[in-house]
Every structure is written in structure tokens, then in C-alpha cells.
Design a protein that fits this description.
The chain contains 18 helices and 13 strands. With 395 residues, the chain is α/β, with parallel strands linked by helices. The protein folds into 2 domains: 9-204 and 348-391, Crotonobetainyl-coa:carnitine coa-transferase, domain 1 (Rossmann fold, 3-Layer(aba) Sandwich), CATH 3.40.50.10540; 234-314, formyl-coa transferase, domain 3 (2-Layer Sandwich). α1 crosses α7. It is elongated.
Length: 395
Amino acid sequence: MDGPLSGIRVLDAATLFAGPLAATLLADFGAEVVKIEHPGGDPVRSHGAQREGVGLWWKMLGRGKKSVTLYLGAPDGQEIFRRMVAEADVVIENFRPGTLERWGLGYDRLCEINPRVVLARVTGFGQIGPYAQRPGFGTLAEAMSGFAAVTGEPDGPPTLPPFGLADGITALTTAFAIMTALRARDATGRGQQIDMAIIEPILTLLGPQLIAYDQLGELQPRMGNRSSNNAPRNIYRTADDGWVAVSTSAQTVAERVLRLVGRPDLTEQPWFASGAERARHADELDAAVGAWIAQRDTETVLREFEAAEAAVAPVYTAADVLADPQFRALGTIAELHDDELGPIRMQNILFRLSETPGRIRWTGPPLGAHTAEVLSTYGVDAAELDRLRTAGVIR
């Protein structure tokens, strides 16, 4: 077996981030993933940083996938896609609701071809409802979920994350949904349709905010780097202009921190025994912890906190992550060879399985690198390839 998902065939017909990343996670653990791209390519190929005209995000997002160009808006492309679905286990798509149906590729039609297929549909707002036809991206989910409203400084505006947070959360959820549907198929023999709206998964990670408003009428305010559940909890500047994060989610850790910074008197206050009460005294606690940290360089702060068994971490950049010994020990960063760029480093697979580990088989391939190879297995010979290429159905 080349991974625990060996034998699972996935057609990744989605673009950009959420759907394709879900397919990447499946590929990491052995699924055979065919990336079906418009002849112009997935926009992620030109999204973000590039080296010598090669998109770097694609190298991570396209890893372990075979790239096939196929224009699904053309009848010839639709016919080939139906042949591919007949042998697939999973299809992932993120077209606007109704697009697949207009092409004769809706779930009812796919089920006729292959009753065991699982169709994962990833859209901004889902397949139904008044917003279903709106263009939807992760940014809108970060706004509508309430995430932006609680992020940022108290006197500042709502703040969006500078990366695809909602898309990433949706990708993880979609991969889980696909595995759940495949497990159900083991029992029923039938596939099913997954309706995944990007506005939904991020809500779960926001914790008790909805139920707190429902039951108490309370809305969580913006608090910067502080927490409403415990203190001290913040980012503090060190003497050498570094930054460290401190967390005291456990009562014993809070006590250790205050003893370390020379303020054991604060631990004796009646309010100190409750995380929520400590949060109401965050100004006083931050002043004590911040003053102590500001007088020491980053290395000293980390060493003293570790000796005191208190929770602290440096604020890293990507450069720091690549150099960190803990990430190195875990194998968090994969070192690979890319045919276009040579040596390349990226995030490794998400988790380690002791018996059936996954692996990155290759980095994101050039556009259409596997078109002839893959389509030949579905009866497309050289003459038909030439005809399809001339018609603009493939590239």
C-alpha cells in the first residue's frame, strides 16, 4: 500500500484553496488524485509568490496530484469527465450551484453513472438559500462568521486574517466529510452528496459565542491579544525587540508565571483563583509580566519560563519555523526535489500514523503534465488528443 487511502480515486475539479486543499490532504495519504484544470489552469498557479514565473503556492497545493487539462464547459470535455466518474470514488468541485447541472454533470446524473461516487460540493454559501448564487470566498466567511468582529484591538476595526483561514478550516472539514461519506458507503454500498458551505466550519471554531448570545445576550468584544477566559495572556516585547506569547489557561501555570516575575502577592488575591476574574484584572497582570519580560532578552525569557514550567513561545516568522529544532524533530517541514525549482521545502503531511504513514509523492506538477497519460486510460488515443487540443478542450 502506498498510504492508507491507496485505491481511492479522487477527481479534484475545484479551484483555488478549500476544495483543492481537501484533495491534497487525501493525496498525502495515498489517494490517487487527478487534478482537472481548465486549459488556462487553476488560478492558484499565479496566486501569491512566484519564482521564475512558477507559482509557489501551487507547488504545495498541487502535490501528489496528476494534472489533467479538460474544459468541462464543452460537450467533449463533459463526455470524458463522465468516463472518469465511472471509475472514481470521490469528486470535489466548487462551481457556482447549478453549473454542474447545466453541463449534464449534476449529482443525479453522476449517480446513474456510478452509484458509489461521493460528490463534495464546496461553495461560499452552500447549495440552497438566498445567498447560494452569490460569489463566495473565505474572506466573506471570516466576516460573516463573527471571526472578524472579535479580532483586533478594542479601539480598532474588525480585522481579517492575512491568510486563507476559513478556506483552510473548510478544507480540513471537507476531507473529514469525504472520509465519513466513504465510511458510510462501506455500510450502504452507495455514495452521497456533500454540501459544504465555507461560511459554516469556521463557526464551530469560534466556540461558545453563539450560545452565549442565545442564552445571555452577550457579545464578545475585541480584546487584541487578550482572552476573556484567563490572564495573563498576551504578546510581550523582550529587551532585544523580540516578541513572546504567554498563556495561562491552567491555574497552576498562572501561579508559576507570577512567581517567576516576582509578583507572588498577586496570586494571593481572591480574584486570582478564577481565570475569568484574572481576565478582569488583565491590566495589572500584563503590567507585571510585561515589565519583567521587557528587561530580558528573548533567549533569557524562554530559558527562565522553561525552568519555571510556565507556558511561553517565541513569535516566529517562516524563517524561524524552518530553523526550529522542534519542527525539525517532528519532521514538520518536508525537503523535496521539484523538477522546475530544484530543492524545495514546504509543510509536511498533517499527522503521523504509526502503521500506515502518508507521504508527499511529488510537488505540484506543470499544467497538464499528466493529460495524455491519464486520458489514455479512458480510451482517448493520440488522434483524439490532437483533436481535443485543437478544439481547446485540453492543453
